[in-house]
Amino acid sequence: MNDGRLMQSMLLDFYGELLTEKQRECYDLHYNEDLSLSEIAEQSGISRQGVWDNIRRAEAALKEMEEKTGLIRRFTETRRGLETLRGLMAEIGGLTEGRAKELAQRAVETVETLLE
């Protein structure tokens, strides 16, 4: 999956409930299921133009929500920070012994749980 498709999927995951049912369905089928506009139109019982309009409106609404809230940006930054922290704690665990090593390993495990 390329970065554009990943972002489209994340937008739907984070803000999809704010869309109308038809917008959500068309957007999901187009970006996550990789269906063409014609395939979606046939499956949904609406025109190809109706599908296109639903997808464009959904894209605009989802992008606006991300611009206003920044949830995906903050989620991504937090995830990167946790991955960095996990690596640093694993490195510290490899350099120490005894209780310090145990604590470093527990910290790594805690971060891995947060990343799941």
Record the SSE blueprint.
Elements lengths: L2 H13 L5 H11 L5 H8 L3 H22 L1 H25 L2 H18 L1
Give the CA-CA distance, first to last residue: 19 Å
Output the structural class: mainly alpha
- What is the number of domains? 2
CATH topology annotation of the largest domain: Arc Repressor Mutant, subunit A
C-alpha-based Rg, rounded: 21 Å
Q: Give the CA-based shape.
A: elongated
Notes on the protein architecture:
With 116 residues, the chain is mainly α. It has two domains: 3-69, Arc Repressor Mutant, subunit A (Orthogonal Bundle), CATH 1.10.10.10; 75-115, no CATH class. It is 84% helix and 0% strand.
List its traits.
mainly alpha, 116 residues, single chain, 2 domains, elongated, 6 helices, Arc Repressor Mutant, subunit A, 84% helix
Produce a short descriptive summary.
With 116 residues, this protein is mainly α.
